[in-house]
Design goal:
The complex is a heterotrimer.
Chain A (H helix, E strand, L loop, with lengths): L1 H13 L4 H27 L14 H18 L1 H6 L5 H26 L22 H28 L6 H27 L12 H27 L6 H32 L4 H8 L9 H19 L1 H5 L1 H22 L2 H4 L14 H30 L4 H4 L7
Chain B lengths: L1 H15 L5 H5 L3 H26 L32 H4 L16 H6 L21 E2 L5 E2 L4 H8 L1 H9 L6 E2 L5 E2 L3 H4 L24
Antiparallel strand pairs in B: 1-2, 3-4
Helix pairs in contact in B: 1-3, 6-7
Chain C lengths: L1 H23 L4 H7 L9 H19 L4 E3 L9 E6 L8 H9 L12 E6 L23 E6 L8 H5 L5 E3 L5 E3 L9 H5 L5 E3 L14 E3 L11 E3 L4 H4 L6 H5 L5 E5 L6 H8 L1 E3 L11 E5 L2
Parallel strand pairs in C: 1-8, 2-12
Antiparallel strand pairs in C: 2-10, 3-4, 5-6, 7-9, 11-12
Classes of the chains: A mainly alpha, B mainly alpha, C alpha+beta.
């Protein structure tokens, strides 16, 4: 009974808010509808309505999937510095970080569902009822660790919220080990995704040992950026207290990650461009184009420039402490890593293809619409969950508020 | 793996219940233990390998040796144009002329295109002067048109060796049974053997054009 | 009390509705069974037989012809190998279209299992400077040679390793096959293949009914559906009956050779022992069973 009342109470909370909140919801809803009709076209005609073809068989959807895995990983990574630097609102950081991770993982799985040719056959990937190719296939590893990561995060977040809701003390011996496990799990999911690409020697562009480290470094650049902005919003709109120093510390950690990422990229560029073997072809296509084909050159350079500006903004303490430049930097680094993972990672590996032919790929309208649909659904889910979490954590939405008669007893 | 563990357990088990115990004196005899071990070993292995057997790639030495070795090569009939054979229908009526010359009245179509080592050879180096229904080898031995490959093989020995095995030439028939052989002349015009260029089939549709 | 009654009747109504829905959709049980069909490797003989019978009925309904779908297993003691004579290939592409007809490849969107690359003689085997779009009046063009590429049926196929659902595997006779009813269409195998041998049905494949080849194999040339991966299977429906693949038979210059690698008297073994043989992308160590050689 309580559960049903919790559900109805939560629904009431979700639909209660300021005008900006409603505008945000309506925007998301419109985007979902627009995107959904695009996806419907893909369901009826097949993946031919995308621009993926045999030469470039993985593209925009997988790029988005990779980016979101990074976000999911990084969201939880903030838990480490929270402990080390003894930030007060550690519980809140864990809750919101893990909520973000949960939504990101759900978005990842959605991108896989929209990408595969037969989504209804997904059960073939499960261990006992299907035939999971574990441990040979990196994709089944990825599926496995993503599911475990989702379950851990989901459990911890629901358990913590449940305890706060029922005004009970949470059992540290359950929560602490799980949170501690979720940290190496976060590293694991992103490394496994990197190994997905690294496992293919036929794809020269991905055949670099630095691929997995670069993935992790870029994840640590982009994931905390979202939380940076989110914490500032929470600070303004709720009783969430987080010191400026904590936010600056997040930015400082991101600088380390950005520097490492920059260094790895320089190392990759040196290896290819100094020796100038035929393998340079893929990096050349990415940065300079081949012949007349210069389609993704603007994307790669905008990603590099945005990343460099963000690095400088975060590096200089003055601009790091100024919240305007800090937020600009956060958006820039998020955009830079998004373009880099979405396009600059996947497309050059397939262009030119394994037999030397060049098929120029750019995302089709269907792909953009479907991606917008998945992102909007994810944002909507995160908004709703955060609203409920905020209500539970900061606004005394708990068992007593549901049953006012109870407190009299 | 399983058998190993079982054996270890068995040995430890044996040590635990020392030999004085009546029951275990019976299995003190190592022979029984080994029998058990062997039975389990082969039994378990069989169980595990049922699935493996299905997908085991055969060892090279276990080859299927059913390719028929051809002694006489059953070839398709020689590609004579209509009415040209038997040659003696015409050639029996007039005396043979052995001098090398340009053919004007008959077989001028062949003469016009002839470029099979034309500097050094002409018709009667392959066609027998007196037996026009036969070809002849360099030794003078006569050859039926059905065995013209032996004539070609005099100069093109490597090609003949490859052809006999099935490596040269258009390949039809059965890979593990009778191969179907064509004569050299089915593909190569003996009077002008170089292949003509072919018109290629259309290129694949550009992936940009697949909608 | 009232509440409990309403709850009970609610549950009763819901279950009644579900059962009646399932019963009414009894005619869709076949589709339901097809959806739940297991991985081909795990099926028993009876299950395979009934699946094939249903397929033949389904194809007859759809195309109006008698079909024969075989599920003949690999012949004992065979390991198929292929050899292609680069000195002979003239780039006429007759193999490409023979394959299209034999294996019921989709005409629109077009799928070709064989891609013929034109390369410069001076540069040698150089994929980066090759083209598959050559279309002169006559072939071969002077100064160029031709390299047709299809599935190399590797000994260590990476496509098999990376498939998350084991929808593709290597049969005992060395042919890498796909179970079209099990493939989820994730295309990881396509990313893994360094020879571009695997093709995806981006749209619903279209084969004109009058051009259908009715001699089929379950793992080979039976009609595929949208959203699954397919590839060259060395014409498994022909090879397991002792015949040569369609590309071998149609080649007008005799550049293609095929046989059993385990048979020391086969022509493929003769080529390996006597000719100068190479494989593509050897450094990747997938050990293809498709050899290229220079016969003359």
């Amino acid at each position: 009974m309580n559960f049903i009342r919790f559900i109805t109470g939560s629904i009431r909370i979700i639909f209660r808010g300021s005008k900006t909140y409603y505008a945000w919801l309506i925007l998301l809803l419109l985007l979902i509808l627009w995107g959904g009709s695009g996806y419907y076209g893909q369901i009826t005609h097949g993946l031919i309505s995308t621009h993926m073809r045999d030469s470039v068989s993985w593209a925009f959807y997988i790029g988005n999937f990779t980016f979101l895995v990074g976000v999911a990983a990084a969201a939880v990574m903030l838990v480490i510095p929270a402990y080390i630097y003894d930030w007060k609102p550690i519980k809140e950081i864990v809750i919101f970080g893990e909520l973000l991770a949960v939504c990101a993982v759900i978005m990842c799985i959605s991108f896989i569902i929209v990408d595969i040719g037969n989504p209804l056959r997904f059960w073939h990937m499960l261990p006992l009822i299907g035939t999971m190719n574990f441990p040979s296939s990196m994709l089944s590893w990825d599926f496995f660790v993503l599911c475990i990561y989702l379950l851990i995060n989901l459990f911890v977040v629901t358990y913590l919220l449940y305890c706060i809701f029922y005004k009970k003390e949470y059992n540290k011996s359950i929560v602490l080990p799980l949170v501690l496990i979720s940290i190496p799990m976060a590293v694991a999911i992103h490394t496994t995704t990197a190994f997905l690409y690294n496992a293919l020697p036929g794809r020269i562009f991905w055949n670099s040992a630095l691929l997995a480290p670069r993935f992790l470094a870029s994840a640590f650049c982009s994931g905390p950026a979202i939380l940076l902005i989110l914490f500032q919003i929470l600070r303004k709109t709720t009783k969430f207290e987080i010191k400026d120093e904590a936010i600056w510390k997040i930015a400082e950690l991101m600088v380390y990650a950005m520097f490492i990422y920059l260094f790895f990229t320089i190392a990759e560029l040196f290896k290819e461009f100094y020796s100038g073997t035929e393998h340079i072809l893929y990096w050349k296509y990415l940065l300079f184009g081949i012949g007349d084909h210069k389609e993704i050159v603007p994307y790669s350079w905008s990603s590099i420039i945005m990343g460099c500006i963000a690095f400088i903004l975060f590096l200089i303490p003055k601009t790091r402490r100024n919240f305007l430049t800090l937020n600009i930097g956060a958006f820039l680094i998020y955009g830079s890593v998004y373009v880099e993972k979405g396009i600059a990672l996947i497309i050059p590996a397939f262009t030119p293809d394994v037999l030397g032919q060049t098929y120029v790929y750019t995302p089709s309208m269907t792909e953009i619409r479907t991606a917008v649909m998945v992102f909007s659904l994810g944002f909507l889910l995160f908004t709703f969950l955060s609203k409920i979490a905020i209500a539970i954590v900061f606004e005394d939405y708990n068992i007593d508020s549901l049953n006012p008669k109870r407190s009299i007893k | 793996m399983k058998e190993g563990i079982f054996l270890v357990h068995l040995i430890l088990f044996e040590k635990k219940f020392n030999m004085k115990d009546k029951f275990y004196r019976n299995i003190k005899n190592p022979g029984i233990l080994w029998a058990l071990f062997i039975v389990l070993f082969f039994g378990c292995n069989n169980m595990e390998s049922i699935n493996k057997e299905l997908y085991k790639v055969p060892d090279e030495k276990e080859g299927n040796k059913k390719t028929e070795k051809a002694i006489e090569y059953a070839v398709e009939a020689p590609p004579f144009s209509d009415g040209i054979f038997p040659c003696t229908d015409c050639h029996a009526n007039f005396p043979p002329k052995p001098e090398r010359r340009e053919l004007v009245e008959w077989h001028d179509d062949i003469s016009a295109i002839f470029d099979h080592d034309s500097e050094n050879r002409w018709c009667l180096d392959c066609h027998d002067l007196n037996n026009r229904d036969s070809l002849k080898l360099a030794s003078g031995k006569l050859l039926d048109f059905k065995e013209s490959y032996k004539l070609c093989g005099q100069c093109h020995g490597e090609k003949l060796r490859d052809w006999k095995v099935g490596v040269h030439g258009k390949r039809t028939g059965e890979w593990n049974g009778r191969k179907e052989y064509l004569l050299c002349v089915h593909c190569h015009n003996p009077h002008s053997p170089k292949f003509e260029e072919l018109k290629p089939e259309p290129p694949p549709v550009r992936q940009e054009d697949i909608k | 009390m009232k509440k409990e009654n309403s709850r009970r009747s609610f549950i009763k109504n819901i279950s009644l509705a579900t059962f009646s829905a399932l019963a009414l959709s009894g005619c869709d049980m076949k589709a339901f069974d097809a959806f739940l069909q297991k991985n081909f490797k795990t099926l028993s003989k009876n299950e395979k037989d009934s699946i094939i019978k249903n397929l033949e009925i389904k194809y007859k309904e759809k195309y109006g012809k008698e079909f024969h779908v075989s599920d003949k297993p690999a012949i004992e003691g065979t390991l198929f190998g292929y050899a292609l004579d680069l000195s002979k290939c003239v780039g006429c592409r007759r193999c490409v279209y023979a394959c299209v007809k034999e294996n019921n490849l989709s005409r629109d969107p077009q799928i070709h299992y064989i891609e013929v690359l034109q390369m410069e003689k001076e540069k040698g085997i150089d994929f980066a400077h090759s083209t598959a779009q050559y279309n002169p009046e006559k072939v071969p063009e002077k100064g160029y040679f031709y390299v047709p590429v299809q599935c190399q049926q590797c000994r260590k196929p990476q496509c098999v390793t990376v498939c998350p659902v084991k929808a593709t595997w290597q049969e005992p006779d060395g042919i890498v096959v796909v179970d079209y009813n099990w493939c989820i269409g994730c295309r990881y195998c396509m990313a893994a293949c360094p020879y571009g041998a695997r093709h995806f049905n981006w749209g619903e494949p279209d084969v004109p009914a009058e051009e259908l080849n009715t001699e089929m194999h379950y793992l080979g040339n039976r009609p595929r559906m949208k959203g699954v991966v397919e590839k060259c299977t060395f014409c498994i429906q022909r090879a397991r009956e002792g015949k040569y693949p369609a590309c071998v038979e149609i080649c007008p210059v005799g550049a293609r050779k095929f046989g059993n690698l385990l048979d020391p008297d086969s022509e493929i073994r003769y080529i390996l022992e006597n000719k100068r043989v190479l494989v593509l992308k050897q450094e990747l160590n997938f050990q293809p069973k498709f050899y290229y050689f220079f016969g003359s």
